[in-house]
Design goal:
The protein is mainly α. It contains 7 helices and no strands. The protein has one domain. The termini are far apart. About 25% of the residues are buried.
Length: about 150
């Protein structure tokens, strides 16, 4: 998947405004929107992103319960890894190039978290509702647990 900078901005804006059509909310769109939010409103994102995603899910007819919708452990793991990728980008890298680089990493595969967590642990209610440490191998970029 290739996105333009304008498409990436529209994904992030649509997520926050809860106007993004549900069929456009793919794995790649999750990553692109998160990268854009890291680059434009990073302060407090660990705290704010859960509510943004939960509100979006409800707006498109979804639910956030023990079996579907928002997943805290997955969200925080991707957010920390995306933040690290953004910090390592060469100066002047635009959003389109940044997202292309992101999607070319192992994170571009939806199964990326299963490198770190067993399926049983990752898809537990505990992991969906709160942060659960990996049980297979440590994350290269663990989430900061500040509530700033």
């Amino acid at each position: 998947m290739t996105y333009t900078a304008q498409e990436i901005a529209a994904l992030a804006e649509g997520l926050v405004a809860r106007t993004l059509p549900k069929d456009r909310w793919t794995h790649a769109a999750h990553l692109a929107a998160t990268l854009r939010l890291v680059r434009t409103r990073d302060a407090g994102l660990e705290r704010d992103l859960p509510g943004i995603i939960q509100s979006y899910n409800v707006s498109v007819g979804g639910v956030n319960d023990d079996a579907s919708g928002y997943h805290e452990t997955i969200t925080q793991a991707y957010l920390a890894a995306i933040r690290a990728l953004v910090a390592a980008l060469p100066p002047g890298t635009d959003d389109a190039e940044a997202v292309a680089r992101l999607l070319a990493t192992p994170m571009g595969d939806k199964a990326w978290p299963l490198t770190y967590w067993s399926r049983e642990r990752l898809f537990s209610v505990e992991a969906r509702r709160g942060w659960v440490e990996p049980d297979l191998t440590a994350l290269e970029h663990p989430p900061g647990r500040s509530e700033g």
